[in-house]
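Narrative summary of target 7.
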Amino acid sequence: MKIKKSTISQEVIAGLTTFFTMSYIVIVNPQVMSSPGTGMTITGALTATVLISFLMSFIAGIYIKLPYALAPGMGLNVFIAYSLIIGEKIPWPTALGLIFWSSILFIVVSIFPIRQKIVECLPSNMKHAMSCGIGLFLAFIGLKNLGLIVSNPATFVALGDINYTVALGLLGFIISFILYYKKKPYAFLFSIIVVTLIAFLTNQIQFPSQWFALPDFDSHFFKLDLIGSLKWSFIPVILAIFITNLFDSLSSIIGLSTSAGFIDKNGNPLQLKQTLLVDSVASALSSLFGTAPATVFIESSAGIQAGGKTGLSSIVTALCFLPCLFLAPIITVIPAYATTPVLIFVGILMCQTVKHIQAEKLDDIIPIFLTIFLMPLTFSITQGVLWGIVSYVLLKVFVGKAKIISPVLWLLAVICLIALITEHSTLIQYLSSLKN
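Modeled conformation, tokenized:
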């Protein structure tokens, strides 16, 4: 397909629209990455977030030449912060190293045809289940951080008290819903600003003594642990990051290109190889800068709808990120209950993929169930991916459908099974005790 020409003013408006639609990530991602227990700083995470968003959106505009903007992905950031660093007690420099090695794998499969084999080996139901599970996990964390869901010794979780801050969070969610429903590009950002202002006017927070500060290049930049992350026990984690990143990228790229008409005569996305290459390089640089993997943002669709057709739109979006490098004092005072509604809302949006799942037989339903529900219940996206893939292959074998399993899927299942056995099974310890 040949893309229609556009004017410079049209591209500038489109770039601004995309920025306002995705600008919430400048606030939300640093708060997620610096959550209590991660050991990361909000100023370091902010600098990394802004710099990677600027750099990769700019490169996308020049190299891909389509109106695609990039930033650290929602879902991926929660995976790194809550599942790996907090949940599995992996030090954050090691977690950044894991992102780097998974990104190297991503770059390799983006250059060679391996990517297509990996994409084809997983059933579409499993892909949609992974997206839905991540969305459920994201929403659960948002509800927990808001205080609407609390721990309970009798029932594990329970409904928390609807106090003033929870009420403010719910108000933020309602504002987000109304504006998003009306297709306003500033829906999430406006919600965060309104709740923060109310918190200030009611003395819940105090504005900072200074409004601007220099970027923090000391806390996270090039602090990743490349050697410590190269362990056999981390291979399943690297694979989980890789799979999550790959399908997150593909779903965004396919969705954007299809809705915008950026497809060739065979229905394939234009500039797919270039887009995936930029996306994979963005992941690697994200680990060097000190944040979650950057990916093509689905919010780029807002700029496309506003008339963006070329890379100039992405360049405008990139330039809009630069001033945010100096806003750390402002962002650090934004309360968590102002940003958690965004986590909940984005999680709900990701759960929409459940409508694409078509399963009637138990050998399909059980892996889907395990993939979706083990992510929030184990507080780990990795566990959902591992159990989903292993159960799918085993159940197909049990019902006599082993022929439909590709060699690549067999290999993935074996790696996942080894990970589950070595990490969680007490059988190995029991057999060792018998020998002794």
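Strands lie at 70-72, 149-152, 156-159, 294-296.
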